[in-house]
Design brief:
373 residues, alpha+beta, Butyryl-Coa Dehydrogenase, subunit A, domain 1, Butyryl-CoA Dehydrogenase, subunit A, domain 2, 3 domains, 7-stranded mixed sheet, two-stranded antiparallel sheet, 11 helices, 9 strands, 52% helix, globular, AcylCoA_DH/ox_N, AcylCoA_DH/oxidase_NM_dom_sf, oxidoreductase, FAD, AcylCo_DH-like_C
């Protein structure tokens, strides 16, 4: 066990400032909204910016594999800013999930490519599944194999350079890598166009086996835990920004000769929302700190899994509630395309389903805290 400090470090504040500036300059609400007018809008430049220019793709890669050797605490800061800007980037899918899986199976070459921002990877699993695996067939006993099957609704499934495949459970777990040229993808219109989904098909696709057995199973488990925490941090960013936009609006919007924020009913709703968002921030920051301690060997896996489920389920609910309150408290303006609130509501609702719904996470949490589900 180790003491957990929730206050941000100087390094984290500098990181937050750099990431916020990037998204302020290159991913404002107007440019994000263009994805709903034209789903084929190219966002690869923004991905190169965070991955290569800021070096954020290397955060979760150890130094001995060519990375920055940072922790979940720093990755959570980045995710908060992504949520705040509803930025259309591959950070969660490639920079967190795929990277963590590659590191877990000690796939040095892949981890190095991801860390350098030379490649973006996607894991072939249905985004709404709480488990990072799919019903795919992986044939082959050695380092080479073939993969067959289709996975529906893969997060950032279209446009990835490489695809990680996870099949089996426990000692039968297999992690394999397939190049994009051997994969057929079909993107479809999703509720949140800033994180597009695609159906991914493998037809006897040649693959390189990166890991098998318990080591591979542990790598998958680590990716699931860190993924929930980083997603929760993003949801906290969505909720905080929705609250901030609403607070700014009710202080300036006047009705019957006074700011609408001066009415008691509005004050009560904002006070309740502030408390909910603040509690979410505490839960997600604590979970990220515990995960960082776990990565350093100072916390148990059971503790970090518990924290990930608490943060994930709570942040998921808060993000949706904050976005819905923002739309309502903006009145008729909240329903217009010119206000960015629809971007936050769509991201919150889509994130609510990623890596399992909050209800499923609470069911998984129950036995860990001795509750009967």
């Amino acid at each position: 066990m180790t003491d957990i400090d929730l206050l941000p470090s100087e390094v984290e504040e500098d990181l937050r400032s750099s990431v916020r500036k990037l998204f302020t300059d290159r991913s404002d609400a107007e440019s994000v909204a263009k994805l709903y007018d034209d789903p084929h809008t190219d966002t690869s430049g923004l991905d190169r910016a965070w991955a290569q220019e800021l070096g954020l793709a290397a955060l979760l890669v150890p130094e001995d594999l060519g990375g920055a050797g940072a922790s979940a605490a720093e990755a959570a800061v980045v995710a908060e800013e992504i949520g705040r800007a509803v930025a259309p980037v591959r950070f969660l899918s490639s920079g967190v999930l795929a990277t963590t899986l590659a590191v877990g199976v000690r796939a040095g070459d892949l981890a190095g490519r991801l860390a350098a921002g030379e490649s973006f990877a996607a894991i072939a699993f249905t985004a709404s599944s709480p488990q990072i695996r799919a019903e795919l067939t992986v044939d082959g006993d050695g380092d080479s194999a073939t993969v067959s099957g289709t996975v529906a609704g893969v997060m950032d499934g279209a446009g990835a350079d490489e695809y990680l495949v996870v099949a089996g459970t426990g000692s039968d777990t297999v992690v394999a890598l397939v190049a994009a040229e051997h994969v057929r993808t079909e993107a479809f219109l999703s509720f949140d166009q800033t994180r597009r989904l695609a159906d991914v098909t493998f037809e006897s696709a040649p693959a390189t086996v990166l890991g098998r057995g318990e080591q591979a199973a542990q790598a998958v488990r680590t990716a699931e835990i860190l993924g929930r925490i980083i997603l929760a941090a993003e949801q906290y960013g969505v909720a905080q920004r929705a609250f901030d936009l609403t607070l700014e609006y009710i202080k300036g919007r006047r009705q019957f000769g006074r700011a609408i924020g001066s009415y008691q009913a509005i004050k009560h709703r904002m006070a309740d929302l502030w408390l909910e968002v603040s509690q979410t921030g505490a839960a997600t920051i604590y979970a990220a700190r515990v995960a960082a301690a776990w990565q350093a060997g100072e916390q148990t896996e059971d503790e970090v899994e518990l924290c990930s489920l608490v943060a994930g389920s709570y942040a998921s609910t808060t993000a949706v509630h904050a976005a819905e309150e923002a739309v309502q408290l903006h009145g008729g303006n909240g329903m217009t395309w010119e206000y960015p609130l629809h971007l936050y509501l769509k991201r919150a609702k889509a994130d609510e389903l990623i890596l399992g719904h909050a209800a499923a996470q609470r069911r998984a949490l129950a036995p860990l805290i001795d509750l009967t589900a």
